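Trying the structure run again after the queue cleared.
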Amino acid sequence: MLTQEKVHRASGPNRARMVPIEDYIPQRCCARQIFTTNFNSPFEMAKTVLITGAAGGLGKAIADAFLAGGANVAVCDVNPPRIAAVEEEWTKSYDGKFLVQQADVTDGASVQSLVDATVSKFGRLDVLINNAGVMDDFSPVGACSKETWDRVLNINLNGPYITSKIAVAQFEKQEPAGGIIINMGSSASYHGFKAGAAYSVSKAGVMALTKNTAGFYGPKGIYSIALLLGGMNTNITDAFAKGMHMEAYQAIAASQSPPSAEKMVPIESVAKYCVFLSEKDIATSANGSCIVFNNNWPEA
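Done. C-alpha coordinates:
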Protein backbone atom coordinates (compact mmCIF):
# COMPACT_ATOMS: atom_id res chain seq x y z
CA MET A 1 0.00 0.00 0.00
CA LEU A 2 1.30 3.49 -0.78
CA THR A 3 1.98 5.56 2.32
CA GLN A 4 1.33 9.30 2.34
CA GLU A 5 5.07 9.88 2.10
CA LYS A 6 5.37 7.67 -0.93
CA VAL A 7 2.40 9.30 -2.62
CA HIS A 8 3.98 12.72 -2.10
CA ARG A 9 7.30 11.51 -3.39
CA ALA A 10 5.70 9.93 -6.45
CA SER A 11 3.25 12.66 -7.39
CA GLY A 12 4.34 15.80 -5.61
CA PRO A 13 6.03 18.81 -7.16
CA ASN A 14 9.56 17.46 -6.56
CA ARG A 15 9.65 15.10 -9.53
CA ALA A 16 13.36 14.50 -9.06
CA ARG A 17 12.40 12.30 -6.13
CA MET A 18 10.13 9.99 -8.12
CA VAL A 19 10.27 6.49 -6.64
CA PRO A 20 11.11 3.60 -9.00
CA ILE A 21 8.27 1.15 -9.46
CA GLU A 22 10.55 -1.57 -8.05
CA ASP A 23 10.11 0.07 -4.62
CA TYR A 24 6.45 -0.90 -4.61
CA ILE A 25 7.08 -4.57 -5.42
CA PRO A 26 7.97 -7.08 -2.66
CA GLN A 27 11.67 -7.91 -2.42
CA ARG A 28 11.10 -11.51 -3.52
CA CYS A 29 9.79 -10.26 -6.89
CA CYS A 30 11.76 -8.76 -9.71
CA ALA A 31 10.00 -5.94 -11.53
CA ARG A 32 12.08 -6.47 -14.63
CA GLN A 33 11.08 -10.14 -14.67
CA ILE A 34 7.39 -9.29 -14.22
CA PHE A 35 7.31 -6.96 -17.21
CA THR A 36 9.42 -9.13 -19.52
CA THR A 37 7.85 -12.53 -18.93
CA ASN A 38 8.08 -14.75 -22.00
CA PHE A 39 4.72 -16.49 -22.20
CA ASN A 40 6.09 -18.82 -24.88
CA SER A 41 8.53 -20.34 -22.40
CA PRO A 42 8.17 -24.00 -21.32
CA PHE A 43 5.47 -24.68 -18.75
CA GLU A 44 6.57 -24.40 -15.15
CA MET A 45 3.55 -26.18 -13.70
CA ALA A 46 1.29 -27.33 -16.50
CA LYS A 47 3.12 -30.48 -17.49
CA THR A 48 0.15 -32.80 -17.91
CA VAL A 49 -3.17 -31.52 -19.20
CA LEU A 50 -6.48 -33.38 -19.46
CA ILE A 51 -9.06 -31.97 -21.88
CA THR A 52 -12.58 -33.33 -22.25
CA GLY A 53 -14.47 -33.38 -25.53
CA ALA A 54 -11.22 -32.84 -27.40
CA ALA A 55 -11.20 -35.02 -30.51
CA GLY A 56 -12.49 -32.10 -32.58
CA GLY A 57 -13.43 -28.43 -32.58
CA LEU A 58 -12.36 -26.21 -29.70
CA GLY A 59 -11.11 -29.07 -27.56
CA LYS A 60 -8.72 -30.27 -30.23
CA ALA A 61 -7.45 -26.73 -30.83
CA ILE A 62 -6.66 -26.46 -27.12
CA ALA A 63 -4.93 -29.84 -27.16
CA ASP A 64 -2.89 -28.83 -30.22
CA ALA A 65 -1.71 -25.68 -28.45
CA PHE A 66 -0.56 -27.56 -25.36
CA LEU A 67 1.17 -30.27 -27.39
CA ALA A 68 2.97 -27.62 -29.42
CA GLY A 69 4.15 -26.09 -26.14
CA GLY A 70 5.64 -29.35 -24.93
CA ALA A 71 2.99 -30.49 -22.47
CA ASN A 72 1.76 -34.03 -22.04
CA VAL A 73 -1.87 -34.10 -23.14
CA ALA A 74 -4.69 -36.54 -22.40
CA VAL A 75 -8.00 -36.12 -24.19
CA CYS A 76 -11.32 -37.89 -24.17
CA ASP A 77 -14.32 -37.91 -26.46
CA VAL A 78 -17.38 -40.04 -27.19
CA ASN A 79 -16.99 -39.99 -30.97
CA PRO A 80 -14.96 -43.05 -32.10
CA PRO A 81 -14.22 -41.83 -35.67
CA ARG A 82 -12.89 -38.51 -34.36
CA ILE A 83 -10.85 -40.32 -31.71
CA ALA A 84 -9.24 -42.54 -34.35
CA ALA A 85 -8.50 -39.57 -36.61
CA VAL A 86 -6.85 -37.45 -33.93
CA GLU A 87 -4.80 -40.39 -32.66
CA GLU A 88 -3.49 -41.02 -36.16
CA GLU A 89 -2.67 -37.33 -36.65
CA TRP A 90 -0.85 -36.84 -33.35
CA THR A 91 1.16 -40.04 -33.63
CA LYS A 92 3.04 -38.44 -36.52
CA SER A 93 4.17 -35.43 -34.48
CA TYR A 94 3.70 -36.09 -30.76
CA ASP A 95 4.17 -39.83 -30.27
CA GLY A 96 4.54 -40.60 -26.56
CA LYS A 97 3.25 -37.16 -25.51
CA PHE A 98 -0.48 -37.83 -25.68
CA LEU A 99 -3.23 -40.16 -24.54
CA VAL A 100 -6.56 -40.47 -26.35
CA GLN A 101 -9.34 -42.40 -24.65
CA GLN A 102 -13.06 -42.82 -25.18
CA ALA A 103 -14.79 -41.58 -22.04
CA ASP A 104 -18.18 -40.21 -21.05
CA VAL A 105 -17.92 -37.22 -18.70
CA THR A 106 -21.30 -38.08 -17.16
CA ASP A 107 -20.02 -41.50 -16.02
CA GLY A 108 -17.87 -41.40 -12.91
CA ALA A 109 -16.25 -44.78 -13.56
CA SER A 110 -15.35 -43.74 -17.10
CA VAL A 111 -13.77 -40.49 -15.89
CA GLN A 112 -11.89 -42.24 -13.09
CA SER A 113 -10.45 -44.69 -15.61
CA LEU A 114 -9.34 -41.75 -17.77
CA VAL A 115 -7.63 -39.94 -14.89
CA ASP A 116 -5.97 -43.16 -13.72
CA ALA A 117 -4.66 -43.83 -17.23
CA THR A 118 -3.37 -40.26 -17.48
CA VAL A 119 -1.49 -40.47 -14.19
CA SER A 120 -0.20 -43.95 -15.01
CA LYS A 121 1.30 -42.71 -18.28
CA PHE A 122 2.52 -39.26 -17.29
CA GLY A 123 2.99 -39.47 -13.51
CA ARG A 124 0.58 -36.73 -12.42
CA LEU A 125 -2.20 -34.38 -13.50
CA ASP A 126 -1.65 -30.63 -13.52
CA VAL A 127 -4.53 -29.11 -15.48
CA LEU A 128 -8.12 -30.16 -16.17
CA ILE A 129 -9.96 -28.34 -18.95
CA ASN A 130 -13.70 -29.01 -18.90
CA ASN A 131 -14.52 -28.46 -22.55
CA ALA A 132 -17.10 -31.16 -23.34
CA GLY A 133 -20.53 -29.66 -23.90
CA VAL A 134 -23.67 -29.64 -26.00
CA MET A 135 -26.07 -26.94 -27.17
CA ASP A 136 -29.82 -27.00 -26.75
CA ASP A 137 -32.42 -26.08 -29.39
CA PHE A 138 -33.24 -22.64 -27.90
CA SER A 139 -36.43 -23.96 -26.26
CA PRO A 140 -37.75 -21.80 -23.40
CA VAL A 141 -38.80 -23.59 -20.23
CA GLY A 142 -42.41 -24.12 -21.35
CA ALA A 143 -41.31 -25.91 -24.51
CA CYS A 144 -38.17 -27.63 -23.24
CA SER A 145 -38.62 -31.40 -23.14
CA LYS A 146 -37.50 -33.34 -20.09
CA GLU A 147 -35.22 -35.32 -22.37
CA THR A 148 -33.46 -32.17 -23.62
CA TRP A 149 -33.23 -30.69 -20.12
CA ASP A 150 -31.69 -33.85 -18.66
CA ARG A 151 -29.24 -34.35 -21.51
CA VAL A 152 -27.95 -30.76 -21.56
CA LEU A 153 -27.67 -30.46 -17.78
CA ASN A 154 -26.06 -33.88 -17.52
CA ILE A 155 -23.29 -33.16 -20.02
CA ASN A 156 -22.77 -29.43 -19.41
CA LEU A 157 -23.04 -29.34 -15.61
CA ASN A 158 -22.91 -32.84 -14.15
CA GLY A 159 -19.95 -33.52 -16.43
CA PRO A 160 -17.74 -30.73 -15.02
CA TYR A 161 -18.86 -31.68 -11.51
CA ILE A 162 -17.78 -35.31 -11.99
CA THR A 163 -14.49 -34.53 -13.72
CA SER A 164 -13.63 -31.78 -11.22
CA LYS A 165 -14.44 -34.04 -8.26
CA ILE A 166 -12.14 -36.78 -9.53
CA ALA A 167 -9.41 -34.35 -10.60
CA VAL A 168 -9.43 -32.60 -7.22
CA ALA A 169 -8.87 -35.94 -5.49
CA GLN A 170 -5.83 -36.49 -7.70
CA PHE A 171 -4.58 -32.93 -7.21
CA GLU A 172 -4.70 -33.35 -3.43
CA LYS A 173 -2.89 -36.68 -3.21
CA GLN A 174 -0.06 -36.13 -5.69
CA GLU A 175 3.33 -34.66 -4.78
CA PRO A 176 3.64 -31.78 -5.07
CA ALA A 177 -0.07 -31.26 -4.53
CA GLY A 178 -2.07 -28.77 -6.57
CA GLY A 179 -3.64 -28.21 -9.94
CA ILE A 180 -5.69 -25.96 -12.18
CA ILE A 181 -9.24 -26.34 -13.50
CA ILE A 182 -10.37 -24.30 -16.51
CA ASN A 183 -14.10 -24.48 -17.24
CA MET A 184 -15.74 -23.46 -20.48
CA GLY A 185 -18.65 -21.16 -19.75
CA SER A 186 -20.57 -18.97 -22.16
CA SER A 187 -22.21 -15.61 -22.64
CA ALA A 188 -25.28 -17.56 -21.55
CA SER A 189 -23.63 -18.00 -18.12
CA TYR A 190 -24.55 -14.41 -17.25
CA HIS A 191 -27.04 -13.39 -20.00
CA GLY A 192 -30.27 -15.24 -19.35
CA PHE A 193 -31.62 -14.81 -22.87
CA LYS A 194 -28.85 -15.93 -25.21
CA ALA A 195 -29.82 -19.60 -25.56
CA GLY A 196 -32.53 -21.98 -24.46
CA ALA A 197 -33.46 -22.60 -20.83
CA ALA A 198 -31.43 -25.80 -20.47
CA TYR A 199 -28.20 -24.43 -21.91
CA SER A 200 -28.49 -21.13 -20.00
CA VAL A 201 -29.01 -22.89 -16.68
CA SER A 202 -26.18 -25.34 -17.33
CA LYS A 203 -23.69 -22.60 -18.12
CA ALA A 204 -24.77 -20.43 -15.18
CA GLY A 205 -24.13 -23.50 -13.05
CA VAL A 206 -20.63 -23.83 -14.49
CA MET A 207 -19.88 -20.28 -13.36
CA ALA A 208 -21.12 -21.05 -9.84
CA LEU A 209 -19.14 -24.30 -9.72
CA THR A 210 -16.02 -22.40 -10.76
CA LYS A 211 -16.36 -19.83 -7.99
CA ASN A 212 -17.25 -22.35 -5.27
CA THR A 213 -14.30 -24.55 -6.21
CA ALA A 214 -11.98 -21.54 -6.22
CA GLY A 215 -13.17 -20.40 -2.81
CA PHE A 216 -12.59 -23.68 -1.01
CA TYR A 217 -9.63 -25.17 -2.86
CA GLY A 218 -7.65 -22.04 -3.71
CA PRO A 219 -5.86 -22.02 -0.33
CA LYS A 220 -4.92 -25.64 -1.02
CA GLY A 221 -3.16 -24.74 -4.28
CA ILE A 222 -5.99 -25.83 -6.55
CA TYR A 223 -7.22 -23.00 -8.76
CA SER A 224 -10.46 -22.76 -10.72
CA ILE A 225 -11.14 -20.39 -13.62
CA ALA A 226 -13.88 -20.09 -16.25
CA LEU A 227 -13.87 -18.63 -19.74
CA LEU A 228 -17.24 -17.18 -20.75
CA LEU A 229 -17.08 -17.65 -24.49
CA GLY A 230 -18.98 -15.94 -27.26
CA GLY A 231 -19.80 -17.14 -30.75
CA MET A 232 -17.43 -19.66 -32.30
CA ASN A 233 -17.47 -21.92 -35.32
CA THR A 234 -17.35 -25.31 -33.61
CA ASN A 235 -19.13 -28.64 -33.79
CA ILE A 236 -21.34 -27.73 -30.81
CA THR A 237 -23.83 -26.38 -33.35
CA ASP A 238 -24.36 -29.93 -34.63
CA ALA A 239 -27.38 -29.93 -32.32
CA PHE A 240 -29.20 -27.53 -34.65
CA ALA A 241 -29.45 -30.22 -37.33
CA LYS A 242 -32.41 -31.65 -35.43
CA GLY A 243 -34.23 -28.33 -35.54
CA MET A 244 -34.68 -25.31 -33.31
CA HIS A 245 -37.45 -23.56 -31.42
CA MET A 246 -37.75 -20.85 -34.06
CA GLU A 247 -39.87 -18.39 -32.08
CA ALA A 248 -37.35 -18.33 -29.23
CA TYR A 249 -34.40 -18.26 -31.61
CA GLN A 250 -35.83 -15.27 -33.49
CA ALA A 251 -36.62 -13.44 -30.25
CA ILE A 252 -33.07 -13.96 -29.00
CA ALA A 253 -31.62 -12.87 -32.35
CA ALA A 254 -33.75 -9.72 -32.31
CA SER A 255 -32.47 -8.80 -28.85
CA GLN A 256 -28.86 -8.42 -29.97
CA SER A 257 -26.82 -7.24 -32.91
CA PRO A 258 -26.55 -9.74 -35.76
CA PRO A 259 -23.59 -12.12 -35.59
CA SER A 260 -20.85 -11.72 -38.15
CA ALA A 261 -17.68 -13.53 -39.10
CA GLU A 262 -15.68 -10.68 -37.56
CA LYS A 263 -17.38 -11.22 -34.20
CA MET A 264 -16.68 -14.95 -34.02
CA VAL A 265 -13.98 -15.87 -31.51
CA PRO A 266 -11.22 -17.90 -33.21
CA ILE A 267 -10.79 -21.22 -31.43
CA GLU A 268 -7.03 -20.75 -31.69
CA SER A 269 -7.31 -17.62 -29.54
CA VAL A 270 -9.18 -19.54 -26.86
CA ALA A 271 -6.51 -22.25 -27.00
CA LYS A 272 -3.69 -19.74 -26.52
CA TYR A 273 -5.51 -18.19 -23.57
CA CYS A 274 -5.91 -21.60 -21.93
CA VAL A 275 -2.15 -22.11 -22.22
CA PHE A 276 -1.63 -18.69 -20.62
CA LEU A 277 -4.01 -19.46 -17.75
CA SER A 278 -2.32 -22.79 -17.11
CA GLU A 279 0.81 -21.08 -15.83
CA LYS A 280 0.74 -21.44 -12.06
CA ASP A 281 1.61 -17.80 -11.35
CA ILE A 282 -1.22 -16.66 -13.61
CA ALA A 283 -3.75 -19.20 -12.31
CA THR A 284 -3.10 -18.15 -8.73
CA SER A 285 -4.13 -14.56 -9.47
CA ALA A 286 -6.98 -15.59 -11.78
CA ASN A 287 -8.47 -18.05 -9.27
CA GLY A 288 -12.25 -17.64 -9.13
CA SER A 289 -12.32 -15.43 -12.21
CA CYS A 290 -15.05 -15.91 -14.81
CA ILE A 291 -13.50 -14.17 -17.78
CA VAL A 292 -15.64 -12.84 -20.62
CA PHE A 293 -13.91 -13.86 -23.85
CA ASN A 294 -16.38 -13.04 -26.61
CA ASN A 295 -14.98 -10.30 -28.90
CA ASN A 296 -17.64 -8.06 -27.33
CA TRP A 297 -20.48 -10.03 -28.89
CA PRO A 298 -23.07 -9.91 -27.51
CA GLU A 299 -22.11 -6.36 -26.64
CA ALA A 300 -21.28 -5.48 -23.06
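The radius of gyration is 21 Å. Worth checking whether this holds up in the mutant runs.
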